[in-house]
Design brief:
The protein is about 25% helix and about 30% strand. The chain is built from seven helices and 14 strands. It is elongated, with a radius of gyration of 25 Å. Strand 5 and strand 6 form a beta hairpin. It has two domains: about 110 residues, no CATH class; about 100 residues, no CATH class. The strands form two sheets. Strands 1-4-5-6-7-3-2 form a seven-stranded mixed β-sheet. The chain has a seven-stranded antiparallel β-sheet with strand order 9-8-11-12-13-14-10.
C-alpha cells in the first residue's frame, strides 16, 4: 500500500513544476491562520464538523443546535479542541495545507457550554432544549432593522421595539389568515431583526409598508408581494418604530 502511495506522490512531483509546489505551499499558509493546535481531538473529522455533524468531546455527545438559534455574531472564546483531517496527511504536509478544524468555546449568557465548529453551534445533547428555552423566554431582546431597495450597502440600524408586537408579526405565518397580493410600486420593505445580547439568538420578520397599510411579507416574485395585512394599531406601531412617517 505504501509503495502505491509513494508511486502516486512521485507522479505528482513530476507533473507539477517545483516552482508551483513552492507557490502552493506559500498560498496554503493561510489555512493555518485560523488554526490552533489544542492537542485535544473530538471523535469526528473536520469534514464532518464543517457539515454540521455531531461529535463526542470529553465524553459528552455534542449536537448541532440548528436553526432554532440562528445568531451569527457569537463571540469566539478559547480554542478547546480539534477535529482531525479526513484528507491524505502526507499530501497536506507536502503542500503545506491544513485541513484540521479548530473548535472554540462560544461566549454566551445561558450558563451552558456552547461550542463553535465551522459555521455551526454545538451543545451537549442533554442541554439543547434547556438552551433553546432560555433564549426563547428572554425578558428583553435587542432589535435592528434594514430597509431593502435603497442605494448603496444595506445598513442595519438599531431600533426600539416591543417583544409582544414582534411575536404577533411572527405569528402571522402560522395564523391561517388569507394572504393578500400587494403590487404598490411605492411600498417599502424592511427586515426587523430580534437578537439576544450575546448574539447567539436571532430571528427576523419582513414587513411591507405602504402609505395606508402594512403587511407581514410571506413571499415576493418580481415586484409582486404576498403577505398578511396588519390591523391599524399594529400598523401604526410598526411605522412609528421604523420612522416611516418621517420619510
Amino acid at each position: 500500500m505504501l509503495t502505491i502511495i509513494s508511486y502516486f506522490i512521485s507522479l505528482i512531483f513530476f507533473a507539477i513544476p517545483i516552482g508551483w509546489i513552492g507557490f502552493l505551499r506559500m498560498a496554503n499558509q493561510q489555512t493555518f491562520d485560523d488554526y490552533v493546535n489544542t492537542g485535544v481531538y473530538v471523535s469526528s473529522t473536520a469534514s464532518e464538523i464543517y457539515g454540521g455533524g455531531q461529535f463526542y468531546y470529553k465524553g459528552d455527545l455534542y449536537i448541532p443546535i440548528g436553526n432554532e438559534l440562528s445568531g451569527f455574531k457569537v463571540e469566539r472564546g478559547q480554542a478547546v479542541a480539534n477535529a482531525k483531517s479526513s484528507s491524505n496527511v502526507l499530501l497536506e504536509k507536502i503542500f503545506n495545507y491544513n485541513n484540521e478544524a479548530t473548535i472554540y468555546s462560544g461566549e454566551n449568557d445561558s450558563g451552558y457550554t456552547i461550542l463553535l465548529g465551522g459555521s455551526s453551534k454545538y451543545c451537549r445533547e442533554v442541554n439543547k432544549e434547556k438552551i433553546i428555552n432560555y433564549y426563547n423566554s428572554l425578558a428583553e431582546y435587542k432589535y435592528n432593522y434594514v430597509e431593502f431597495g435603497t442605494s448603496g450597502e444595506l445598513e442595519y440600524l438599531d431600533m426600539e421595539f416591543n417583544k409582544e408586537v414582534f411575536e404577533l408579526l411572527r405569528s402571522k405565518y402560522e395564523s391561517g389568515e388569507t394572504e393578500v397580493t400587494i403590487t404598490d410600486e411605492h411600498a417599502r420593505e424592511y427586515s426587523i431583526n430580534q437578537t439576544s445580547a450575546d448574539g447567539v439568538y436571532w430571528r427576523s420578520v419582513n414587513v411591507l409598508l405602504t402609505d395606508d397599510s402594512a403587511y407581514v411579507v410571506s413571499s415576493i416574485s418580481g415586484g409582486t408581494y404576498t403577505g398578511y395585512l396588519l390591523d391599524k394599531k399594529t400598523e401604526d406601531f410598526v411605522k412609528d418604530a421604523l420612522g416611516f412617517y418621517a420619510k
